[in-house]
Write a structure and sequence with these properties.
Blueprint (H helix, E strand, L loop, with lengths): L2 E10 L15 E13 L2 E8 L8 H14 L15 H8 L9 H22 L3 H8 L9 E6 L12 H11 L4 E4 L5 H15 L5 E4 L6 H11 L6 E3 L7 H10 L4 E3 L6 H10 L8 E2 L9 H13 L14 H9 L4 E4 L15 E3 L2 E3 L15 H8 L1
Parallel strand pairs: 4-5, 4-10, 5-6, 6-7, 7-8, 8-9
Antiparallel strand pairs: 1-2, 2-3, 4-12, 11-12
Helix pairs in contact: 1-2, 1-3, 2-3, 3-4, 4-11, 5-6, 9-10
Amino acid sequence: MRIKEIREIGIPLEGRIANAVVNFSEHDVSLVAVISDVQRGGRPVAGLAFNSIGRFAQGGIMRARMIPRVLGAPPDTLLADDGQRFDPARVLAAAMRNEKPGGHGDRAGAAAALELAVWDLNAKLAGEPAHAAIARAYGRDPAPREVDVYAAGGYYYDAGSGHTLGAELRRYRDMGFDAFKIKIGGAPLAQDVARVEEALAVAGDGSRLAADANGRFDLATARRYAQALAPYRLRWLEELGDPLDFRLNRQIAETYEGALATGENLFSLVDAENLAAFGGMRPGRDIFQMDAGLSYGITEYARMLTMLEANGYDRRQAYPHGGHLINLHIAVGLGLGGCEAYPGVFQPVGGYAATCALGGGKVRPSQAPGFGLEEKDELRPAIARILG
């Protein structure tokens, strides 16, 4: 059993939306196919995955460095000890050969796309959903279960677009979501407070609404926002300052009683260790949002969870960033607190397939083999293109 070919294509994200920092109209993602020599139904079995939302496609890194390393490795060195499946950690090690420590950035997402595609491939070879393969690999119950989910949106739309925040959240509520996340920091404080109040008219309670500043604020501004939003008792405040400004996060945690959330822009175990050690994160309260699709894949992400638990945190404090099918399977397979969804934005990868069971603020993945990306209507043209 061996990997015959690895392909990558960039997929543009649809929609003209922006948060407090970036406009997503120029963003894309890398869709990867890891093609094996195993035949099913007259076609080779292929694993599919993408790096996560909110960055860019990384085909250059893959084609110039990582894909040749994996294809050049002796085939048996990429297999698990039983020879019946590929070992994602060994594939990741092959992709990272001759890379220096540090400098994670886009490299971490490029490696993640490859590693995640191997998980999809293994699950398809075993004829099971990815969440079951993930759970079994880490000694957990592979039975399907539903997890908590919230709809992420509330972006700043172009003036005159006809969109309103309230209408957007009502649309998500009609889909079966009862918790939401909106953006702050892209408008003056008073306007953002008004946006929070508009969102609460739909959410009904602060415990069902989070607010995300996308790392926009300095300490003084973060304190003003935390003070102004404290009476609303929101589900959490997210990334008030720069993702690596652990001191700012700690200083806000010292005075803000509500939950804080951060971590989506940390791309390695060492980054997450520093957040746990120096960021003031509180066991049982704050939320870790590291994303396997941005941080070398499930191999590295599982190490982060082990580290968090060793430092007194609960894995149910983990809600991966990303809002897509891959992270839904990771949340189910690794027993996390829940996940986010992008039901209205970031197509064709955002949100879930119609075959996923959604309602009452919970979601359950389908039992399709692998991550079930083939079941997502919006992704089918890109999958047909990469598989030829």
